[in-house]
Amino acid sequence: MNNMSPKVQNQLGMLQQIQQQLQNILQQKAQYEMAVREAKRAQEEISDAAEDTVMYMSVGTVMMQKKKSDVSAKLNEKTESLELRIKSLEKQEKMLAGKFEQMQAQIKEALEGKTAPSAA
User: Fold this and answer.
1) Do 91 and 99 contact (CB within 8 A), yes or no?
2) C-alpha separations of 58 from 19, 38, 61, 69, 89 in Å
3) CA triplet 33, 35, 39: central angle to 5 degrees?
4) End-to-end CA gap in the chain
5) Cut 0.85: pTM above it
6) CA angle, 51 as apex, 47 and 55 as ends, to 5°?
């Protein structure tokens, strides 16, 4: 591996960075997806409750009594916001996956080019 050109070594470093970025995005996406599931489950739970049912909502470190409509609106807002973040992460994931594949192909080409002449 020490006989690799500096260019290929640099490309390998970049490939590792892209892979790390992809892993970070996938972790964030999984966290947001779990939060969406929790918010939707909470929404389902309160949908069966009567309008005058006493509900509490966490506001920072305090639990406050809120109207069902307020709690429902906050849950919908949270779900929409998280789903937008997920879509944004999916775009980033797709872009990075493309870069990863491209970089991987370049490295493979460069390594194979040492044994056979390339048509570049």
Assistant:
1) no
2) 37, 14, 7, 15, 27
3) 120
4) 23
5) no
6) 80
Give bridge partners of residue 56 from the DSSP assignment.
65
- Average pLDDT over the chain, rounded to an integer: 90
Domain ranges of the chain: 6-113
**What single-letter amino acid sits at 109?**
E
What is the fold of 6-113?
A: Helix Hairpins (1.10.287)
- 46: Cβ contacts below 8 Å, ≥ 6 apart: 53, 55, 68, 71, 72, 75
Instruction: Take residue 23 and report the two structure tokens written for it.
Output: 């892993």
Tell me: the pLDDT tens digits for 80-93?
A: 999 999 999 999 99
Both tokens assigned to 112? 């194979």
The residue behind tokens 């972790």 is: 27
